[in-house]
Amino acid sequence: MSRLRQALQALRARLLGPAKELVGTDQLGNKYYRLPRHQTRAGQIIPERRFVEAINRQPYQYEIGHFPTEWEAWIRKKRDDPPTIEEILKNENYRQEMKQKIKDVSEKDKLLQAKEYKERLVAEPVRTHVKGHASAPHYGKKEPSRDPMSTANTFQPGSWMPPGSGSSQNK
User: Which InterPro entries match (predicted)?
Assistant: First the structure.
């Protein structure tokens, strides 16, 4: 029986390529596989291939963080061996510690800045309120101009003069 099974597996491998091997599963439920390096019937050598069967099968549902960094490095062949659960947990704890340290340093920095502002050692940043752009025709005015606006369909060169100009009153 085992010889028949071996023969069938060898025939399948020659015709269809080798079967995928389950390498591991992450804490999110994604399954990671590899196809070993093999030779096709034509003699072409196919390199090892690594891939994931994700729990979210739609590509648009993927977001950063859906795959652990260690598994992503293995998929992209940045590392030879697949990660262990212990390694993933150790790195996750390290990331959490770093987030907490960053939060603590940020709070400490804000307190130091507030102290410096209070003691007038450092000038506080100026808070400006932008109401418009200087190139806008109504910049600095309370309301936009009520002057007639052209739609470009009725414009005649030389037909409009700005209000208050002497040349329109001389005509």
Answer: ComplexI_NDUFA12, NDUFA12
What Å distances lie between residue 129 and 72, 126, 133, 138, 139, CA to CA?
Answer: 45, 10, 11, 16, 13
pLDDT digits (tens, 9 = 90+) for 25-47: 888 888 999 988 877 777 888 88
Amino acid letter at 15?
L
The per-residue b/e assignment along 77-110, b for 16 or more CB within 10 angstroms, e otherwise, is eeeeebbeeeebeeeeeeeeeeeeeeeeeeeeee
b/e sequence 119-134, b meaning 16+ C-beta within 10 Å: eeeeeeeeeeeeeeee
Neighbours of 31 (CB within 10 A): 15
How far CA 52 is from CA of 22, 25, 171, in Å, comes to: 10, 9, 82
Q: 64 pLDDT exceeds 90?
A: no
Question: pTM score, two decimals?
Answer: 0.53
